[in-house]
Amino acid sequence: MAATSKTGHGVPLLAGRRALVTGSTSGIGLAIADRLARDGADVVVNGSGTSEAKRKDGERQAAAIAAETGRRVAFVAADLTEPAEVPRLVAAAAQQLGGVDILVNNAGIQHVAPIEEFPAEKWDQILALNLTAAFHAIKAVVPDMKRAGWGRIVNVASAHSLVASPMKSAYVSAKHGLYGLTKTVALEVAEHGITVNALCPGYVMTPLVEKQIPDTARSRGMTEGEVVREVLLKAQPTKRFVTVEEVAAAAVFLCSEGARSITGIALPIDGGWTAQ
Which of 36, 51, 103, 275 has the most CB atoms within 10 Å of its CB? Predict the structure, then answer.
């Protein structure tokens, strides 16, 4: 369970704020949604909801956070690879919560292949979800944030916003683009009480990464321990995974009043990866 941050007067750090977190039914997104609620925000959890099972899982996650925190927490399904779905999601979140003060763009997918074998449809899908969806979401929330004179936009980017790795052409391109989008919008809204920042985690032990370890071990003829040490954590000097709780804590700080002069940054949470 994450600790709850409070002001000097005992008030939750984000009391009265309303947050939308895309791609938040598992991993980093779920940890951020949970932490925002624990720190006083009402939250809309989002997932694709492309099946009844996924929709029920999203609703269950939202209900669990609400029960634990006492905040208003709702689930809204949306396929963010479809441009029209993004403003619909933002509108639904605003309707559920009465507005959106905090937007966390977390939804993303990955595919690994050499450039000459990289499927064009995977390129399109990764760019659509990891980058274009963030553009549409930011475009949808900024007008109300400007009217309110306050807003926080946190883009969950990656160490791959700052450095590249082989066989990840679409992902690295999307994450570099997301950091460029972060800096551009930060400059545009700087005089309106809105900050825009990018979190850049290294390897995080999420369910998605955990499932990749045995497959990688089989394909490379390695043990699972060797995969962790020599593939996943090779570039991270700490030689340990970043935790979802560490990423969530950074997100909460960037949403706080204490971070009102921090905007347009890429914040590495990568165990020293990008310091090399």
Answer: 36
